[in-house]
Amino acid sequence: MMLRANLKRIGVWAASLLILASAGGISAQPQTSPLSLTDALARGFKGDLNDRSQLERALLEIERSDAERLPSVRAESDAITSRSTDVFAERPYNQQSLSATIAFDYPIRSNRISRLRRLAATAEAEYLRSRISGTRDDYEAVLTAYGELYASQHQKERLSGAIGSVELADREISRLLDEGQVSLITAASSREAVLALRSQLLSLESRRMTAQSRLRELISESSDAEIVADLSTDLDQIESEPLDREATRSRVMERNSSVAAQEIAVQKSRLLYEEASSRSRLTSAIAGFGGIAAARSDFSGTSSSSVGFGVYGLRVSLRYPLFDRSMMIDVAVARVELERAEAARTKSRTDAEARIAREWLQYQEAGKRVELLREWAAVEREREESLRRLIAAGVRREADLAHVVAARARREGELLDVRIERWRLSRLMQFAGSNP
To answer: The domain containing residue 399 runs over which residues?
Structure first.
């Protein structure tokens, strides 16, 4: 009798706990807000203002590298007046002149330096554009939260639909226990299975609320509407289109953010080294001018004269340093920085290769686990259907149904979790290859 009373108290406690846990949702009846994965990703990506300012600077660097190929042109005007104190004959006493010219300077730079400067600025601009549209960390955070929300919602819906039949069977067992047709052990086993299902349902609700809160934070959602995630189509598409290892690897290495950042550092270091080295080479420049001028001269004791004329000139300058200790030090420092940047790039490539290999192994392992759990879940469903037929024929008792339903729910939950993990890995590797 004591065991029977304890069973009833446990049932009342579990039912009360379930009702209290969902009382807020039942009473408030919150509105639902369907959210697609595309919208979640679009709202979850937040560009950095610092990246935007650096992008503007990189674009200006590209314009400057293009402008360096053009000469510098300016307008000049000179007005000169002089008075001589020399009293010898034929010496001008007063002189005034005015000139207006167009002058230009064109330093003959190395085309290699201009090309390196433009390549470095272009690569940096592309890298910053990809960061503004969203980083891999932002993408992974949204994927994880969205997948967790979908898994908890989907499993909760399926478990809520199955728990009704189990509770109905448990009530029938309780009636048979009161009539003395089943033992207390049988009734306790049935109640234990029901409590396990209810506990699993509460865990799924807590998991759903946690995932929803995290997703709200990522997408800056302020409304109280319940977010509804849907991955059914995307999951089937990912499983029907498996990734190719070599193609995925090449795309990842081509657009990997850390590798791209190190490549930019190498290009900048190489540019600095070329600029430092160019100071030790022969340099040349062309300068010229052309225009009009007017002059008037007064000679002491004689007549005065005034004349207007055109002026032009062209100058070619050559420069070759013979000894400059500071220049040699600058070249050595630039060479060390270039070697350091190349070593960092090599390490970044090695780390990216290792990460690709690790994620690919996880992707392959998840695929094998999906196949195994799919077969296992099919066996559990067949077992449940067989048991229901036996119960309908009167061969088995209702008490055995709860354990079978709980086992099927666990297997299907595990299967969905692994499918979502494989989907997440696939999306991450595709994101590394191209921005979504």
So the answer is: 40-68+109-282+320-433
Do the domain assignments include residue 28? no
Q: Is residue 26 part of a domain?
A: no
Start-to-end C-alpha separation, the chain? 64
Q: In this structure, which amino acid lies at residue 58? A: A
Report yes or no on 79 lying in a domain.
Answer: yes
Residue 269 sits in a domain whose CATH number is 1.20.1600.10
Angle among Cα 338, 343, 345 to the nearest 5 degrees reads 95
Residue 402 contacts residue 384 (beta carbons within 8 Å): no
Give the pLDDT of the chain (436 residues) as one tens digit per residue.
444 445 445 454 444 444 444 444 434 455 777 888 888 877 776 655 566 677 777 777 777 777 777 778 889 888 888 776 655 555 556 778 888 889 988 877 656 677 777 778 887 777 777 666 667 777 888 888 999 999 998 888 888 877 776 777 677 777 777 777 767 777 777 777 778 778 888 888 899 999 989 988 888 887 778 888 888 888 888 888 888 888 877 777 766 777 777 888 888 888 888 878 877 777 788 888 898 988 887 766 566 777 778 888 888 888 888 877 787 888 888 888 889 988 988 888 888 888 888 888 988 999 899 999 999 889 988 888 888 888 788 777 666 777 787 788 888 889 999 999 999 888 888 775 444 4
| 147 within 8 A of 231, measured Cβ to Cβ | yes
- Same domain for 314 and 325, yes or no, is no
163 neighbors 196 (Cβ within 8 angstroms)? no
- Asked if residues 204 and 155 have their Cβ atoms less than 8 Å apart, the reply is yes
Place of tokens 């660097």: 61
What does the DSSP 8-state code read for residue 84?
-
Say whether both 307 and 354 belong to one domain.
Answer: no
pTM check: above 0.90: no
CA–CA separation, 404 and 411 (whole Å): 11
**What helix, strand, coil percent values describe the chain, rounded to 5?**
70, 15, 15
If asked whether residues 113 and 152 sit together in one domain, one would say yes
> How many whole angstroms separate alpha carbon 181 and alpha carbon 140?
56
Total number of residues shown for the chain: 436
Query: Within this chain, do residues 94 and 230 fall inside the same structural domain, yes or no?
Result: no
Number of structural domains (the chain) is: 2
